[in-house]
Specification:
One of its GO terms (biological process) is regulation of mitotic DNA damage checkpoint. By secondary structure, the protein is α+β, with helices and mostly antiparallel strands. It has 12 helices and 18 strands. The chain is 28% helix and 26% strand. It has a 7-stranded antiparallel beta sheet.
């Protein structure tokens, strides 16, 4: 499962907003992970012109670090608007162009180009003039439409085991092992991850891991189409698309919840009460619920319109949480079901643990925030600064020696002997430590 906290960080980032085309509610939470690697965009009008009103929403799920996802969250909207195809209203091609351009922009940054992180991206553009929505997806985040309370996929998860994805990977001299790209990455399309895009003879769409998204276009029918969900795999690992749609309808039917509150409660539903289960519910979580507003319709009018449809959504938040984590013994009182994800832990007493079991939910190995992974070369530098040398022997064995090492060992030995006697003869006592196994 990688490194996880002893208690989840349940402080949430929540936003909401509305205009003449859409309204949204967002919730993002770090959860059990060592750091928050998700980012998002909620831009209700990015056209900047009078002819069309365009909304843009996106969720970016980082892996191997947060740098690429953070860049996308800050720059993706700007990159999209700069595309010539966007200015012409060719939104399907504009989204493809923007994904490729984002990779190119990252490579121009001297720091990010050598960063080993990446991110999945699921994005949506809605055009008031064209009465269409366009979804672009790369990776295993997901966009789902509620169409008369039925979940309709607007994106498809990109896993290395899919025939089409595996064919591209192998053709680019990669391989799939343990359901991962080159035995490492659990998804086959992403922004960043340049170590998998190093073949200069291949175009972007043919690289081992490609940033080029799939595109789905959908003409909006306001009598049937109700809202769109964009979320990272931390949500979809716990809920099917239909279960998520049902929970949102359940929240709408309650009559006293905002989109922001519904998205927040869904995050609570998906946050694992413990780390002793299968690993689901221990990921970062981000979800955006986007209401599709009719011309001249307010958000309150939209809520009433959806409630008046009287969709059957009888499974409560509490019941769904119990079913997801059926291995856990929740309190019988429903009011206590969300205690683990609503009671804030003391961050100062938080610690992390690790689990060596394979985790299919984690895209790449993580490290604790503020720590740098140390390899043998950085260890050599650290020891060398103190007068200690490291040399490489055979059979993958490293030898540590030097006068400084002898002084350190002597001081430790002296401190030990001050409180304890050693009955061994001089010949039996070691005078140095010679080898350390890698």
């Amino acid at each position: 499962m990688g490194q996880i906290l002893s208690n989840p960080i349940i402080d949430k980032e929540v936003h909401s907003g509305s205009d003449v085309l859409t309204a949204f509610g967002l919730c993002a939470m770090q959860g059990w992970r060592m750091s928050m690697e998700d980012a998002h965009v909620c831009a209700s009008n990015i056209s900047g012109g009078e002819e069309d009103h365009v909304a843009y929403y996106a969720v970016f799920d980082g892996h191997g670090g947060s740098s690429v996802a953070t860049f996308c969250g800050e720059k993706a909207s700007e990159v999209l608007q700069e595309r010539a195809t966007f200015k012409k209203g060719q939104f399907a091609q504009a989204l493809i162009d923007a994904f490729i351009a984002t990779d190119e922009e990252i490579l121009k940054d001297p720091m990010l180009r050598n960063d080993h992180s990446g991110c999945t991206a699921t994005t949506m553009v809605i055009s008031k003039l064209q009465q269409k929505l366009f979804c672009a997806n790369a990776g295993d985040s997901r966009t789902v439409l509620s169409r008369n309370a039925l979940a309709k996929a607007l994106s498809y998860d990109h896993k290395p085991t899919l025939v089409g994805e595996k064919s591209r990977i192998v053709a680019a001299d990669g391989f799939v092992e343990m359901d991962r790209v080159n035995g490492n990455l659990a998804l086959s399309r992403a922004i960043g991850d340049f170590e998998f895009k190093s073949n200069s003879s291949l175009p972007p769409h043919e690289q081992i891991v490609t940033c080029v998204p799939d595109i789905v276009e959908h003409p909006i029918d306001y009598e049937l189409d109700e809202f769109v969900i964009l979320a990272c795999d931390g949500i979809w690992d716990c809920l099917t698309s239909q279960e998520c749609v049902d929970l949102i309808h359940y929240g709408i039917n309650k009559g006293d919840m905002t989109l922001e509150e519904i998205s927040s409660r869904i995050v609570d539903v998906c946050c694992s009460p413990t780390t002793e289960g299968t690993g689901i519910g221990c990921d970062n979580m981000s979800i955006v619920i986007v209401a599709l507003l009719k011309d001249g319709e307010s958000l309150n009018d939209w809520f009433k319109r959806i409630r008046d449809k009287k969709h059957d959504a009888s499974v409560s938040f509490e019941a769904r949480r119990r079913s997801i984590f059926s291995f856990y013994e929740f309190p019988k009182d429903d009011s206590e079901v969300f205690a683990i994800s609503t009671k804030k832990s003391d961050d100062h007493n938080n610690s992390y643990s690790s689990n060596d079991d394979e985790d299919e939910d984690m895209d790449r190995p993580e490290q604790a925030p503020g720590r740098q992974q140390m390899d043998l070369f950085s260890l050599e530098s650290l020891l060398g600064a103190g007068g200690i040398q490291v040399t490489q022997g055979g059979n993958n064995v490293s030898y540590i020696h030097g006068s400084a090492l002898s002084e350190v060992l002597a001081s430790l030995s002296g401190a030990h002997s001050a409180g304890h006697s050693d009955d061994r003869s001089e010949d039996e006592k070691p005078d140095k430590i010679e080898e350390v196994k890698d």
